[in-house]
Amino acid sequence: MRTGLVRSDIEGKIRDIVRGLYDVIPSGVGSSGAIPKLSNSEERRLLQMGAKWAVENGYGKESDLDFIEDRGVFKGADPSVVSDTAIKRGLEQVGTLGSGNHFVEVGVVDEVYRPEIAAALGLTKEVVVLGLHTGSRGFGYQICDDYVRRLLKASAKYKIDLPDRQLACAPITSPEGKEYMTAMACAANYAWVNRQVIMALSEKAFCRALGMSEKTLGMQLIYDVCHNIAKVEEHEVDGKPLRVVVHRKGATRAFGPGHPAVPEQYRKFGQPVLVPGDMGRYSYLCVGTQEAMRSTFGSACHGAGRVASRSRMIKEMQGHDLFAEMQARNVFVMAKTRGGLAEEMPEAYKDVEVVVDVLEMAGITKKVARFRPLGVVKG
After folding, report:
1. Of the candidates 209, 138, 173, the residue with the CA atom closest to the CA atom of residue 374
2. Catalytic site residue 302?
3. In the chain, what's the furthest Cα-to-Cα distance?
4. 201-216 per-position pLDDT tens digit
5. CA dihedral of residues 92, 96, 99, 102 (deg, nearest 10)
6. What rounded mean pLDDT belongs to the chain?
7. I need a labelling partner for 96 at 20 to 30 A (CA). Which of 33, 102, 154, 179 fits?
8. CA angle, corner 68, sides to 67 and 73, nearest 5?
9. Structure confidence at residue 37 (pLDDT)
10. How many CB atoms lie under 10 A from the CB of residue 94?
């Protein structure tokens, strides 16, 4: 999201903003309470409607839908194939931030590489932005857990040899494959709602911290994109158009210019591709290319990638004053637990600048803008 503010407008207020975000967005494992507990029937409605449910319930505005992948709804979602356990876990977690690498980050545009594209996205140097990474929470996790068990049996049934149980699968046209896709659609719709609600809560936190109206703040969604999802798409294979299932794990769409799935306002330039880095350096906004359509099924990475495991980071960060170390980088951080912060220290990640340079050299994306973090909320 971008705001109508520049860095000087929030000078001396970053701590107030981050504390405000931390107070209004429940975070961490099992967190709940962002909105009143849903009824079972209302959750099922949410799972079918996606982001439009959030807008109809006062979280964001209708125009947001134009800047969400697939307008925030994965069609064909069927709550009847979702377990009661998953439904129960989802009732209280809408509008909550997960643990691990999930975050809400206040940043500023500190570099613009392609001014014409950046202007189309509403970005210039010094503009204050808000980045958000979270998904379908315990609801999606439970769906995954349920279907890994089911698809392990299906793999044996269809005589599919698995090198790893996490690769459990079934033919897409099989009953098991079809039911998984409809259950996964429910998780995607839940995730879109979750992010939409958090965006609305963040807007209110900004306004309270800065003592200004929503109109003055001018927060606008740039783009909301999926990751860790399978989609049926048409791509060119051996010179011919073919419908395929593209499963992007730790990856996101990077559709090129002219693609009808790209919002009309951005279509001339290609789909926005968000590549978060660690909380001490940078994050990037890029756009997809025609080369990505040819070489990666219109896909790019969705993050810098780890160089150290979570357990290793917890061990290595023992005795460190993590909050002071982040403050020394001019980043104010609030986190649910010290262990959670230790897992996500900058040293755990590759340098995202190198990652996006490789993407650009490969022709998969083009750099548009770089964001520098000022304040972060971690689950």
Report:
1. 209
2. yes
3. 62
4. 999 999 999 999 999 9
5. 150
6. 95
7. 179
8. 140
9. 75
10. 28
